[in-house]
From TrEMBL:
<dbReference type="Pfam" id="PF01957">
    <property type="entry name" value="NfeD"/>
</dbReference>
<keyword id="KW-0472">Membrane</keyword>
<protein>
    <recommendedName>
        <fullName>NfeD-like C-terminal domain-containing protein</fullName>
    </recommendedName>
</protein>
<feature type="transmembrane region" description="Helical">
    <location>
        <begin position="34"/>
        <end position="64"/>
    </location>
</feature>
<keyword id="KW-1133">Transmembrane helix</keyword>
<feature type="domain" description="NfeD-like C-terminal">
    <location>
        <begin position="84"/>
        <end position="142"/>
    </location>
</feature>
<dbReference type="InterPro" id="IPR002810">
    <property type="entry name" value="NfeD-like_C"/>
</dbReference>
<keyword id="KW-0812">Transmembrane</keyword>
<feature type="transmembrane region" description="Helical">
    <location>
        <begin position="7"/>
        <end position="28"/>
    </location>
</feature>
Amino acid sequence: MAAHFIWFALAVVLVIAELASLTLYLLMLALGAVAAGIGAVFGLGVGAQIVIAALVALAGFAVLRRLPYGKVRRGAAATDPSVNLDIGQEVDVPAWDADGRARVPYRGAQWNVQLREGAVPMLAPGRYRIVEVRGNTLFVMPRQ
């Protein structure tokens, strides 16, 4: 079997795996495999094919990292409403204790509630908006 068929078959397998993972990094490896396959068609040796595959994949990684799709997102899941659907919801706090904490029913269970750091300490009963979730504690801000 000719080397270029192996490279092109590897590229197809990588594209299929990319469709399952949706990371775009496997697509860069597939582009490297296609470039190596083209090098094989032109009669380059196996070592040169591997170098071409690596260089094209690395160049693809570098370009991908500069695009918004390749950026590493380091946001905290505790405050990200696209990860935690509780962010932005409201709870009724009937009373606060002396430590600035409360227990409230929310989604069929009792939750600890605490004002988020930096919030104006108005510990009046009322509706509060959830801005962060850590464990079984809801961090809230006064509703505006």
